[in-house]
Structure formats: C-alpha cells, structure tokens
Amino acid sequence: FRRIGLAPIDLATGLDALGRVLAAGATERVIARVDWRVFRPIYEARARRPLLSELGNEGATPPAAGGGELARRIAALPAAGRLEALRGAVREEVAAVLGFARADDVDVHQGFFQMGMDSVLSVELASRLERALARVLPRTLAFEKATVGELAAHLERELSGSPATSTATPIPRSVEAGPIAIVGMGLRLPAGPGREALAGAEALWRFLEAGGDAIGPAPSGRWEDEPALGAFLPEVDRFDAAFFGLSGREAAYTDPQHRLLLEVAWEALEDAGIAPDSVRGARGGVFVGITQAEYARMSGGEVDAYQFTGTALNFAAGRLSYVLGLRGPSLAVDTACSSSLVAIHLACRSLASGESDLALAGGVNLFLSPFSFRVTAKAKVLAPDGRSKTFDALADGIGRGEGCVLFALKRLADARAAGDRILAVLAGSAVNQDGRSSGLTVPSRDAQEALLVEALASAGIEPGEVGYVEAHGTGTPLGDPIEVRALGAVYGAGRSPEAPLVIGSIKTNVGHLESAAGAAGLAKAILSIERGTIPPHLHLRTPNPAVTTRFLEETRTMSSWAAAWPN
Questions:
Q1: How many beta carbons lie within 10 A of that of residue 311, not counting itself?
Q2: SS3 of residue 315 by DSSP
Q3: What is the H or E stretch that residue 452 is in?
C-alpha cells in the first residue's frame, strides 16, 4: 500500500474518523491517508490505459506494428543470458502494472495474485508483454504461469522456438520402493484447560512422560450454554491469514480445521529440514484424514464466495497442495476413526509406486459446535467423566479429543541419500473393513486378526519381534476385550513369557481424536521407542476381567501398522 501512496492510519485518527462517520449516519464512506505525490501519477497513468479495448478475443488481432523491442534485445544476447534478462524485463512490467516503485521490489518466486494482481491487471500485463515482444500472448498468462520465474522461463522457450511440450517431469516406471521413512512431524494436541496447546514432538513427550491428562470442559466462548467434557485445543480461532496468503474474509469462511492443517503441515516440513517454499512444483502428495464438517453448519444460511472452498472436506487437502505448490495426489480421507492411518497407508503406497516423492499425511479433528456431542451422548458412547479408561474394569465409553498430527514421508532410500534425519521407518501396513459382524458399529475379532497378520507379512516381521503395540483402545466395555483378544491371538503365539507384549493408548491422555486418532498414536509410538521409554497409561486401576485373559485393547481397527526404527 505504501508503494502506491496509501499509508496506515494511526489509532486515534482512525477512531476519530469512525466516530464522525457514525455520527453523520453515513453508510458508504472510504477513509484513507493518501500521499497524493505518489498516488496521483499511478492513478492517472492507469486511468489512461485502454484496458477495456484490450479484452477482445484472445489472439484475434496481432500486436501493433513497431513493438518487439524486448524480443530484439533478447535475441541479440547469448543463450546463457536470455533467461536472466527476461526475468528482469518481466519484473519491470509487473512493477509498472502493480504500481511498485522499483522492479527490485517484485519477488521472482511470489505469486502474482499474492502481490496484488487481479484479473484485469493480468490482462494489462499480458498486453504490455505482447507489445514488448511483438507476439500474441494468452490473456490468461498470469494464471498459467503464476510467478515471474515461471513466466520468464515460458517466454524464453517461446522466443527460442522450443516446441510447446509439457514441462512436467514424468513419473518413473519403476522406483526402488522399500520401506518408508518418517522424516518430519508436526502436531498440535491439547494439554488441558488453561494450558497452551502442545506444539511439536518435545512438548508432546514432556506431557506424556509426566502423565498429562488433557480432559476438561469446552473452552469458554466455543459455544453457548451447552457443557461438554473432552480434550479441547485452545484459541482455534487464531490464525495468521496473511502468512498463508489468505485475505481476512477468506480466512473467516475457512474451516479452522483447514487453517490448523496449514500451520501443522508447515511445521512438519520445517521439522524435516525442508524449506516449505522449496517444494513448489514437487511431486508431493497430501493425504489428510478428516471427518467433521461442522463449520459449514454454522453459517446460518449465509452465502459467501469463499464458503464452499472454506468448508468442503476435499479442500482440506487441496488447500495444502495449493499453498505449498505440491503436484502429487491430494486426498481427504474419511474412514471414521481410522482416517489418519488410512491416509498414511495411502501415502506410503503413493511413495512406493513412484507417484509421489514426498508426502504429507495425517489427520485433523476439531469440535466447532455441540452437535456431535449431542449425537454421541444419545448413542450412549461417551464416558460420563470425558475420560477413556482403556482396559480398565470401569471403562464406560470414549473421551473425545481435538488435535492435528501430520508426518513428512519419503522413501527410505531417498531419505538416506539426502542425509535426512529419520524419525522412524514404516516397514509395512494393511487396511481392511470388518465386513459382516454383529452390528454396523460392532468390531470383528476375526477381521482384526486377519489385518494384523497381513500387516506383519507386509513388513516382513515375526510376531515375537514386536515389543510394543500402540492400541486403538477407546475404553469401551465391548471394544477393548475384542481388540485385546485379537492382539493376543496374533502376537501371543509362540511368545516367550520373558518377552511380554506391552500395549498402551494415547487416548488416556488426550482422548479419542477420531479422524486424527491413529496419527496421534503413531506419534506417541515413535517418541516412546526413540527414547526407550513407554510413558504412563492413565486411568487403569483394575484391569478389565474380560481383557486379562490374554493381552489388552479395542475397536474396529481398520488400519494396523508394523514399524521398525532406524536403530
């Protein structure tokens, strides 16, 4: 704004102006602090530009004679210097269109529309370049080539007479798949009422090691006059929209779950030592477990242009791909409580096939209205005290929780070649559905056993080699025994009494994160084995007698994992 002559208004002046406007009963006013010496020349120059006359059919009329000075100058340069010269020329034209004082103020890698361009100005940019190059250019040029760097490279190919072939990198027919490495982790999990959210692996580990319990009432102001117990994230309304290139209005209509995914994805890449700005154009996949769509219900019938993209589940993944510039698969996964693990499973398959070279995978879950609490309360699946008493004789329902966990994944061979820090290695995975059971929501022990066997086979690991299982463990009287018996049947065969199978569940700390639950459990498992310590399992006083006959744990586990760590 300063570059075009508009300066900020100080607080006192702004309040005084607002008071006068309100006192006058005005409904349409603009209050601005204008430096006319800067603003007037830009405004007058733009007013003289015949934009509307240039909005005709694309390519219908050749550029005016006498243009092409830039094309002649570029042609006279050696091939090695043409691209840099075009970058400089495009920066000058963009600066002129956007009213920047200097071409150096134009970022070569920033998107045109992030810098303030709109559809009308993009037509003007194309027209200016047409005249400079004496070449017909599409009016959609700034949409197709979104940065100075991309546009200059495109123009260099055009001027050199290179054939108009796709610049996309083909997917290799075969890659050395092997295991998948987790090279980065981003997370935001609740720590309890009145406490800041857990951000990052170290904060989560300190919380788990101390036996942290995040359960409490819904934060004040989340919704009115309807109490609920669970593990809630604080300040989910806080978001740095400008950092991610969203306007305030667009951010307001964007589901806080989508906003949280943006923050945590950025942190996962940084944790992996990957500059988020460096992955633009990469064959990177995004796989997000997400089930809640409560924000769409909160509009009260109001319609806005941003509402659809801000609340549709598929845009939860699509926005990550868009902001980061990733060009691999982009999927929102809804398989209920297993969503985040199924998302990770799909990410591993994408990496193994060569479809992706980098993947972000995990899940997110927020409760933005009391609606889902009403439904689960009526279904009698909620624990009255909000806590998951997993494996305990007093297990009486699930405790619900919020959070977001995302992992940055690569093929193990690629991670080693790049010198990446490897947090864990995913050796194999399997996915299934229970099929016909005693009821639509009743887990099947046979299906779970088959899934465990398949996951172990996929990983090439014998049951006796597994020392710890991070279980689903919701704390329900029906689900816990079924899961534990399935674990006992598969992992107990031939196991030495000196090598017991230890199991636990992060749900006792942060509740059932539903679409993010599996990813939270995986984060705990990684940290536990990395540190050689299994943190306390809460709310277990008297083991469930239906569980103690074999091993321990719960429900319809549609995704099961076998993991090996680098050491």
A1: 21
A2: helix
A3: helix 445-459
Are the C-beta atoms of residues 35 and 5 closer than 8 Å to each other?
A: yes
Residues in the chain: 567
What tokens were used for 282?
């990469």
Q: Helix 201-209 crosses helix 517-531 at what angle (to 10 degrees)?
A: 80
- Rounded to whole angstroms, the Cα distance separating 424 from 180 reads 9
Report d(CA 5, CA 164) in Å as an integer.
Answer: 41
pLDDT of residue 551: 41
Residue ranges of the chain with per-residue pLDDT less than 70: 41-67, 162-177, 300-302, 548-567
Q: What is the DSSP letter of 401?
A: B
What is the helix (H) or strand (E) element at residue 425, kind and residue range? strand 424-431
Strand partners, 504: 470
**pLDDT score recorded for residue 546:** 78
**How far are the Cα atoms of 88, 459, 473, 474, 497 from residue 487, in angstroms, in the given order?**
64, 17, 12, 15, 16
Q: Compute how many other C-beta atoms are within 10 angstroms of the C-beta atom of residue 131.
A: 17
pLDDT at 53: 40
Instruction: Tell the burial category of 487 from Cβ atoms under 10 Å away from its Cβ (0-12, 13-18, 19+).
Output: buried
Inter-helix orientation angle 314-324/256-271, to 10°: 40
- Taking alpha carbons only, the member of 266, 201, 205 closest to residue 408 is 266
Judged by phi (left if over 0) then psi (alpha if -120 to 50, else beta), residue 308 lies in: alpha
* DSSP letter for each residue of 77-137: S-HHHHHHHHHHHHHHHHHHHHT-S-GGGS-TTS-TTTTT--HHHHHHHHHHHHHHHTS--
Tokens of residue 131, six digits: 């005249």
Contacts of 17 (CB under 8 A, 6+ apart): 9, 31
Burial class (CB in 10 A: 0-12, 13-18, 19+), 258: buried
For the segment 554-566, what is each residue's pLDDT rounded down to a tens digit? 322 333 344 333 3
Find out whether 325 and 401 touch, Cβ atoms under 8 Å. Answer: no
pTM for this structure? 0.80
**pLDDT 10s digits, 206-248:** 999 999 999 999 998 888 778 899 999 999 999 999 899 888 8
